[in-house]
């Protein structure tokens, strides 16, 4: 009977081996992931027993840890103006994890970042956990409030950039949510709120300004125009290669593209500037076909399409096309339809690139991180993302965009005493749904301080009557005024 | 050989005493660390705790020294170590929960430890030969089955944590499957040692396997039915896995037929699968096992999730005793079902490896005892006890670490719980007893064959030229040293001594002679190295029966 006992011993060895492996997996391999799990009560308790760093917009505190008594944990996370700043701060929920800056900068805010440890000799010697560092954002509270108020109860997003630095000055998404209701120490309330938000069809948890992809409609004509001016025989005041017809029939199909209102572009033989200011679909559809997919795609990429971006929240990748386009598809893409998808941030980067002499700056939300004793831990300096167009082409585009605001589709964005450059968009959505209203602009045109993009989903309050100029331009105007004044 | 001759037979008792000192030292050290961590001072009860544990260990050691001097010397210290560390962890959670001394779980556990040590003492003193137990084969079966199914009796059994494996009588609770484990091992061993011949007869051949005969399937089907009943009605996969695994394992060892194992595993897996499909509560347990972190599960799978989070927070070296939070909302049942997770949090991967190794060593010593046992019943019995310990550790730790679904069984020696302590100390006592009898050198009365008058030797041996050569060399020339320097014409007692020292010259370690004591299987005319073949005991009481059994 001894040899079967030996074989049994081998089987038992395997059983024990499986235990050694599973214990190693839990305690070593998966330990970090398990510790970061949002339902890990140990981590929750540990983090909430320390003061978490603040999040600031300028000097205004938009996320704060308050010492509370008679609560499950010593520190409660609070968000003054929570709804308005939710796309910036994100949330620090009791059981459903962290999101937004609270997530992206968690190691600094919670004080676990290595730099914070090494900075302080006492913490190094005692092993004591340092207090969380604070994050100063690039948000300008006045601009944020202007965008928030101007969007009103409409669904959509507004982003404002400093074209020279890439700093995000405003980032609003509607509908929003109240992060205070998620960070509460009331387990049930937090969980129920999370479930309610998850179930909400309007998806309030999504930060529409960077995480939602929309068809950009005519705002994309900035890219088409940029490609034309950079690569072909085009000029703002020239009628060369400009198709001014009311309707064009797309090659190999019976499908057509027409101008809005079914009228000819300008006098039928417009200049590029006139076609741009009037947002003529036929002109730019033809132009895209003439330029070809490669040139169009390359130009879009120079503005940031297809780039991995983090601000530090991850930005959804904007894209020009998913694959090879045939001519009709290319024509559609030239006016920002078909498969062209962009985030509002990317549309703002179009204006910002033009405003900054053709150079697109890397967008960024965090200006500075400083430790509890006030010392700067990290500070960000402006970074170039890419050169979208030459300085000359940027000037030409500026000229066309100012004409659009001065006498074209975007007169609603005019600011007295300041020249504004902009482009409207009215993006066809799914059939039967009202179009998204777009507007992107920068101002002042001669010394740009702000570039902005606004999208109002499904026409907002104007419904089927919506157009970018009517619905979105006034919002952009409000934001620009707030920054400039 | 001369040196070996003069050495006293090594029993390993001094080694055992030394190891016990180490084990108790570790436990007291752990106790001190808890006090330092929680109250910043050495705990006042430290001396009392150490003295109590030490006294229990001393009693057991002395009893073993007196009544089972050749017993395996590592079993006792290992069990003591695990028991001591378990007590420390229970005490640590008591402190965190603010329990007073008398109302504490640690105090209760210490009482149970005392009782368990008394039970172990009684077994070692009273059970002089483990073969006595084989007489109670069928009573053990009846008792075991009754105990196993007792929790199903209305009003007596109660569902704790989803599993109905406890009985409650007044203020006392008991997990009868723990004792059933021993009784059924007696039954399996006793039954299989007699039934193995017929069970190992081959039936039809399917694929590469010789299937057993259909009419021999009865016992397997019975065991299968009972275990499935346990799974479905007591809702505990662990218990059913333990008993079925025990039965299949012993069946295989008795018959050496893999077909039994394949058949049994197939039946069990099939049955368990059908049970999961048919019974929602079984399915629930499987789901908590497979997807404990899923949003819709995490509120129900709290227990397993808490344990995993706790172990994860311990990491490689743990938070240190008294520095984690293995209690309250972060870990429930941390003194009983989840004590392994609590230990993992505070002692880390290093601590858990040490604990698992201690268990593995107990199992290994148990299996070795089985290998060394000189009778079929003893082999099956010792192996079964070791296997049951291994399966229980696997089921409990595997449940906590998500190798298998979580069960209501408790970690031997460590988890708070009287029934478990009692049963596992009894297992240690029985293993000590069996190992004593297998390692004990032959006594004078069953002295070596070599000493028999030549006429009484079996003919085949008498005619063996090799044997005759040996005999001539050693005993043929009266009173003269032989070539090996061993005086000849020595007394029978000194001859005994000689064999004994040869027998034990490797101490209690592995040694071919000890390892393979199936002397009764060897050809009687085999090599005649002194102290090997001559270790036969022609007058041992059940020699014939054993050899028949062991063939």
Automatic annotation (TrEMBL), chain A:
An annotated GO cellular component of this protein is: plasma membrane
Q: List each copy of the Penicillin binding protein A dimerisation domain by range.
A: 52-135
Q: What is this protein called?
A: Penicillin-binding protein 2
Record field: transmembrane: none
> From the UniProt record, which GO molecular function terms apply?
penicillin binding; peptidoglycan L,D-transpeptidase activity
- Give the InterPro entries listed for this entry: Beta-lactam/transpept (IPR050515), Beta-lactam/transpept-like (IPR012338), PBP_dimer_sf (IPR036138), PBPA_dimer (IPR054120), PCN-bd_Tpept (IPR001460)
Give the species this sequence originates from. Kineosporia babensis
Q: Which SUPFAM superfamilies match?
A: beta-lactamase/transpeptidase-like, Penicillin binding protein dimerisation domain
Please name the Pfam families in this protein's record.
Answer: PBP_dimer_2, Transpeptidase
Q: Which GO terms describe its biological process?
A: cell wall organization
**Start and end residues of each Penicillin-binding protein transpeptidase domain:** 156-481
Automatic annotation (TrEMBL), chain B:
Q: Biological process (GO) annotations?
A: cell division; regulation of cell shape
Pull one GO CC term from this UniProt entry.
plasma membrane
Q: What is its main location?
A: membrane
Please verify whether the record's keywords include Heme.
no
Q: Which UniProt keywords apply?
A: Cell shape, Membrane, Transmembrane, Transmembrane helix
Question: Looking at the record, which segments are called Disordered?
Answer: 438-551
Q: Which is an annotated GO molecular function term of this record?
A: lipid-linked peptidoglycan transporter activity
Q: Which InterPro entries does the record associate with it?
A: FtsW/RodA
- Cellular localization per UniProt: Membrane
Membrane spanning residue stretches:
15-34, 46-63, 75-93, 105-126, 138-157, 177-195, 216-233, 239-255, 260-280, 338-363, 384-404, 410-432
The annotated regions of Basic and acidic residues compositional bias extend over 459-475, 492-509
Q: How does it sit in the membrane?
A: Multi-pass membrane protein
Keyword field contains Kinase: no
Write down what this protein is called.
Answer: FtsW/RodA/SpoVE family cell cycle protein
Organism name: Kineosporia babensis
């Amino acid at each position: 009977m001894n040899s079967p006992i030996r074989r049994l011993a081998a089987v038992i060895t395997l059983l024990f081996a499986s235990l050694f492996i599973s214990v190693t997996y839990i305690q070593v391999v998966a330990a970090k992931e398990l510790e970061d799990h949002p339902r890990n009560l140990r981590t929750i308790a540990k983090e909430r027993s320390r003061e978490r760093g603040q999040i600031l917009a300028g000097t205004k505190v938009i996320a704060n840890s308050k010492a509370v008594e008679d609560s499950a944990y010593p520190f409660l996370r609070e968000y003054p103006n929570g709804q308005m700043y939710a796309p910036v701060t994100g949330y620090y929920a009791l059981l459903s994890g962290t999101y937004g800056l609270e997530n992206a900068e968690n190691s600094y805010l919670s004080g676990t970042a290595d730099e914070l440890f090494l900075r302080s000799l006492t913490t190094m010697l005692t092993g004591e956990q340092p207090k969380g560092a604070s994050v100063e954002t690039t948000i300008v509270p006045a601009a944020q409030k202007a965008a928030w108020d101007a969007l009103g109860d409409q669904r959509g997003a507004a982003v404002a950039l400093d074209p020279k630095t890439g700093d995000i000055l405003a980032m609003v998404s509607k509908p929003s949510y109240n992060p205070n209701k998620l960070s509460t120490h009331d387990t049930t309330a937090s969980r129920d709120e999370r479930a309610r938000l998850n179930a909400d069809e309007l998806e309030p948890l999504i930060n529409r300004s960077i995480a939602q992809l929309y068809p950009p409609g005519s705002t994309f004509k900035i890219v088409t125009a940029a490609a034309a001016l950079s690569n072909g025989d085009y000029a703002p005041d020239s009628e060369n290669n400009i198709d001014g017809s009311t309707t064009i029939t797309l090659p190999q199909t019976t499908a057509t593209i027409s101008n809005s209102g079914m009228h000819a572009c300008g006098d039928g033989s417009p200049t590029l500037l006139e076609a741009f200011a009037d947002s003529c679909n036929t002109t730019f559809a033809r132009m895209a076909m003439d330029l070809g997919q490669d040139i169009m795609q390359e130009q879009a990429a120079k503005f940031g399409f297809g780039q991995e971006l983090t601000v530090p929240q991850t930005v959804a990748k904007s894209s020009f096309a998913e694959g090879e386009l045939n001519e009709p598809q290319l024509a559609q893409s030239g006016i920002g339809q078909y498969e062209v998808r962009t985030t509002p941030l990317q549309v703002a980067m179009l204006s910002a690139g033009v405003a900054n002499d053709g150079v697109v700056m890397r967008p960024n939300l965090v200006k500075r991180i400083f430790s509890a004793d006030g010392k700067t831990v990290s500070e960000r300096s402006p970074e170039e993302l890419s050169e979208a167009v030459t300085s000359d082409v940027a000037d030409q585009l500026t000229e066309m965009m100012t004409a659009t605001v001065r006498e074209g589709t975007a007169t609603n964005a005019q600011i007295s005493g300041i020249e504004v450059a902009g482009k409207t968009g009215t993006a066809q959505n799914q059939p039967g749904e009202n179009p998204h209203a777009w507007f992107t602009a920068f101002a002042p045109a001669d010394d740009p301080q702000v570039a902005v993009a606004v999208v109002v989903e499904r026409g907002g309050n104007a419904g089927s009557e919506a157009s970018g100029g009517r619905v979105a331009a006034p919002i952009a105007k409000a934001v620009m005024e707030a920054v400039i004044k | 050989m001369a040196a070996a001759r003069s050495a006293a037979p090594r029993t390993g008792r001094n080694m055992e005493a030394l190891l016990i000192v180490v084990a108790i030292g570790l436990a007291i050290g752990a106790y001190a660390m808890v006090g330092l961590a929680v109250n910043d001072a050495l705990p006042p009860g430290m001396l009392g705790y150490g003295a109590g544990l030490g006294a229990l260990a001393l009693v057991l050691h002395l009893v073993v020294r007196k009544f089972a001097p050749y017993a395996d010397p590592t079993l006792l210290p290992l069990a003591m170590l695990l028991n001591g560390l378990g007590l420390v962890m229970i005490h640590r959670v008591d402190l965190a929960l603010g329990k007073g001394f008398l109302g504490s779980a640690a105090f209760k556990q210490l009482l149970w430890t005392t009782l368990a040590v008394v039970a172990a003492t009684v077994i070692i003193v009273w059970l002089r030969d483990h073969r006595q137990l084989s007489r109670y084969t069928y009573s053990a079966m009846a008792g075991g089955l009754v105990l196993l199914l007792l929790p199903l009796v209305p009003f007596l059994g109660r569902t704790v944590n989803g599993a109905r494996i406890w009985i409650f009588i007044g203020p006392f609770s008991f997990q009868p499957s723990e004792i059933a484990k021993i009784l059924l091992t007696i039954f399996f061993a006793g039954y299989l040692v007699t039934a193995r011949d017929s069970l190992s007869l081959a039936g039809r051949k399917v694929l590469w396997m010789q299937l057993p005969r259909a009419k021999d399937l009865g016992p397997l089907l019975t065991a299968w039915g009972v275990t499935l009943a346990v799974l479905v009605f007591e809702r505990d996969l662990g218990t059913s896995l333990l008993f079925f695994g025990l039965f299949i394992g012993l069946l295989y060892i008795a018959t050496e037929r893999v077909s039994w194992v394949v058949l049994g595993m197939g039946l069990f897996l099939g049955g368990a699968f059908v049970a999961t499909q048919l019974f929602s509560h079984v399915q629930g347990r499987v789901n908590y096992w497979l997807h404990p972190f899923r949003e819709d599960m995490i509120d129900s799978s709290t227990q397993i999730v808490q344990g995993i989070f706790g172990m994860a927070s311990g990491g490689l070296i743990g938070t240190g005793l008294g520095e984690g939070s293995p209690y309250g909302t972060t870990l429930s049942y941390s003194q009983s079902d989840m004590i392994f997770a609590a230990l993992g949090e505070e002692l880390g991967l290093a601590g858990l490896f040490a604990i698992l190794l201690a268990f593995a060593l107990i199992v290994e010593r148990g299996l070795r005892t089985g290998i060394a046992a000189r009778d079929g019943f003893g082999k099956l019995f010792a192996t079964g006890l070791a296997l049951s310990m291994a399966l229980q550790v696997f089921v409990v730790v595997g449940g906590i670490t998500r190798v298998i679904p979580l069960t209501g069984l408790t970690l031997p020696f460590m988890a708070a719980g009287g029934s478990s302590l009692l049963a596992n100390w009894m297992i240690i006592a029985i293993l000590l007893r069996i190992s004593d009898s297998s390692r004990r050198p032959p006594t004078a009365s069953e002295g070596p064959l070599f000493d028999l008058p030549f006429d009484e030797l079996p003919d085949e041996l008498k005619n063996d030229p090799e044997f005759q050569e040996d005999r001539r060399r050693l005993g043929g020339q009266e009173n003269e040293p032989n070539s090996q320097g061993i005086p000849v014409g020595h007394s029978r007692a000194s001859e005994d001594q000689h064999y004994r020292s040869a027998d034990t010259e490797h101490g209690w370690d592995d040694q071919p002679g000890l390892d393979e004591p199936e002397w009764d299987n060897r050809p009687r005319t085999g090599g005649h190295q002194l102290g090997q073949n001559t270790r036969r005991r022609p007058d041992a009481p059940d020699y014939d029966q054993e050899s028949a059994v062991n063939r």
